[in-house]
From TrEMBL:
<comment type="similarity">
    <text>Belongs to the peptidase S1C family.</text>
</comment>
<keyword id="KW-0720">Serine protease</keyword>
<feature type="domain" description="PDZ">
    <location>
        <begin position="378"/>
        <end position="471"/>
    </location>
</feature>
<comment type="function">
    <text>Might be efficient in the degradation of transiently denatured and unfolded proteins which accumulate in the periplasm following stress conditions.</text>
</comment>
<protein>
    <recommendedName>
        <fullName>Probable periplasmic serine endoprotease DegP-like</fullName>
        <ecNumber>3.4.21.107</ecNumber>
    </recommendedName>
</protein>
<keyword id="KW-0677">Repeat</keyword>
<dbReference type="InterPro" id="IPR036034">
    <property type="entry name" value="PDZ_sf"/>
</dbReference>
<keyword id="KW-0732">Signal</keyword>
<dbReference type="InterPro" id="IPR011782">
    <property type="entry name" value="Pept_S1C_Do"/>
</dbReference>
<feature type="signal peptide">
    <location>
        <begin position="1"/>
        <end position="30"/>
    </location>
</feature>
<keyword id="KW-0645">Protease</keyword>
<keyword id="KW-0574">Periplasm</keyword>
<keyword id="KW-0346">Stress response</keyword>
<feature type="region of interest" description="Disordered">
    <location>
        <begin position="83"/>
        <end position="103"/>
    </location>
</feature>
<dbReference type="InterPro" id="IPR001478">
    <property type="entry name" value="PDZ"/>
</dbReference>
<dbReference type="Pfam" id="PF13180">
    <property type="entry name" value="PDZ_2"/>
</dbReference>
<feature type="compositionally biased region" description="Low complexity">
    <location>
        <begin position="84"/>
        <end position="98"/>
    </location>
</feature>
Length: 482
């Protein structure tokens, strides 16, 4: 019995040893993954650092006055030193025709090669105003670059160097980014060439001030001055964005970095290569966000779409019949979730192309067709007396507007709010100086009409109110208490 027991134990030992030999590699691999949980970036960096380039620029500017001359009378400077430009001064002219001398300012940035024949992508602000642009390759070879074109609105610039057979970056196509996805940047922060940093996608579709045509990719990748224009890679080694901006109080990385989506950039590239300039679609509306209160007043189950606060005259929107108060839900087959979704979609839509627009008008879905114009060619649209009135129901004092006031405001009708006393007007966010145009899509042509209208409107229900504030049209939700 004792021998039999030992034999069984031996067989079991052989069996478990065999299983261990077969499955140990997988067990070790799983343990490694669980222990670290991070991808290996070494191969990704090694394969792509040769497509990243250093960009240095030179710009000539007028030399500022030397510290020892500051505070001296300008006439004396002109006579004795020729500063800033007296050809008769004893020291002679300081430059052409006595102009102040110029000095060269140098700056650094990043870029990346997108074709084997030498096309390079970078930021517009990297090369803006430069007299000379030099590209330094991975092998330290330096080449003078020609600026094919640039687009300040998207901060994209296209360069060309005289070279062939170059390695070039793979551009991501039809592979949408997701929040939490790993990304990697290669660039020249503070001139430290080929620096690799990594992080995750923090948010998508970020709208920044003065950058309404770019839905930025936000990441926590450490980006610093000098990274501008460099590529942002996914784990497949494809470029998904161009590193463009950082948010920082110190000038260094704070984990808030913003990149231009590569599809936006490549749309610009295609136009720059074809014509040397960018033509952007123009609709002709002013939009605002649909808040939860406004969504209720417009009959929506949840906030969505872009609310048209104003349609500018003689624009594609006006010709197509888009009206103030319409909520654009879909444009050219793409859903509009937030108001900031609309401008970049309109911007990349070809000019003179007819597109379908889905909108909500007074609770009913409507489809219209609009033919976009060119933004650069579009008209530059500039973004009372008597009849005192006080309404306890509205909680505001109003008065009629003169014809001249209406013409100056570029609106056909409305009444001026002179004082907000409280109640419904205050809760809705109305202010003194606002011009009340419509309530619940009903026109407010004068004080008398407003008085009559207020008597008919329902209480305790959110009603959309259109106003003009600082020459801009917008909607607010109004709830009458009684």
């Amino acid at each position: 019995m004792k021998g039999m027991s030992m034999k069984k134990t031996s067989l079991f030992s052989v069996f478990f040893l065999t299983l261990w030999i077969l499955f140990a590699p997988f067990a070790v691999q799983a343990a490694t993954t669980n222990a670290f949980g991070l991808p290996d970036f070494t191969e990704l960096a090694e394969q792509n650092n040769k497509v990243v380039v250093n960009i240095s620029t030179t710009k000539s500017v007028k030399r500022s006055m030397q510290p020892q001359f500051r505070g001296m009378p300008e006439d004396m400077l002109r006579f004795f030193f020729g500063i800033p430009g007296n050809p008769q001064g004893p020291q002679g002219p300081q430059g052409p025709q006595g102009e102040a001398p110029k000095e060269e300012i140098h700056s650094l940035g990043s870029g990346f090669i997108i074709s084997e024949d030498g096309y390079i992508l970078t930021n517009n602000h990297v090369i803006d105003g430069a007299d000379e642009v030099i590209v330094r390759m991975r092998n330290r070879k330096e080449l003078k670059a020609k600026v094919i074109g640039s687009d300040p609105r998207t901060d994209v610039a296209l360069l060309k160097i005289d070279a062939d057979g170059l390695p070039f970056a793979k551009i991501a196509k039809d592979r949408p980014l997701k929040v939490g996805q790993w990304v990697l940047a290669i660039g020249e922060p503070f001139g430290l060439d080929y620096t690799v940093t990594h992080g995750i996608v923090s948010a998508l579709g970020r709208a920044l001030p003065d950058d309404t045509y770019v839905p930025f990719i936000q990441t926590d990748v450490p980006i610093n001055p000098g990274n501008s224009g460099g590529p942002l890679f996914n784990l497949d080694g494809e470029v998904v964005g161009i590193n463009s901006q950082i948010y920082s109080k110190s000038g260094g990385s704070m984990g808030l970095s913003f990149s231009i989506p590569i599809d936006i950039a490549m749309n610009v590239v295609d136009q720059l290569r074809a014509t040397g300039k960018v033509e952007r679609g123009y609709l002709g509306v002013q939009v605002q966000e649909v808040t939860s209160d406004l969504s209720e007043s417009f009959g929506l189950e949840k906030p969505m779409g872009a609310l048209v606060g104003e349609t500018f005259p003689d624009t594609p929107a006006a010709k197509a019949g888009i009206e103030a108060g319409d909520i654009i839900l879909e444009f050219n087959g793409q859903p509009i979730v937030k108001s900031t979704d609309l401008p970049p979609i309109v911007g990349v839509t070809p000019v003179d192309e007819k597109v379908k627009v889905k909108l909500l008008r007074q609770g009913k879905v409507k489809w219209i067709t609009v033919k976009l114009a060119s933004l650069d060619k579009a008209a530059n649209v500039a973004e009372g007396s008597g009849g005192g009135f006080s309404s306890n129901r509205l909680g505001a004092k109003v008065e009629n507007l003169s014809e001249k006031q209406l013409q100056d405001l570029k609106i056909p009708f409305g009444v001026l709010i002179t004082d907000v006393e409280g109640g419904a007007a205050s809760k809705a966010g109305l202010r003194s100086g606002d011009v009340l145009v419509t309530i619940d899509f009903k026109a407010v042509r004068n004080v008398d009409e407003l008085n009559k209208l207020l008597k008919t409107l329902p209480a305790k229900r959110s009603l959309p109110v259109r106003i003009v504030r600082n020459n801009r049209s917008m909607f607010l939700p109004l709830i009458l208490e009684k």
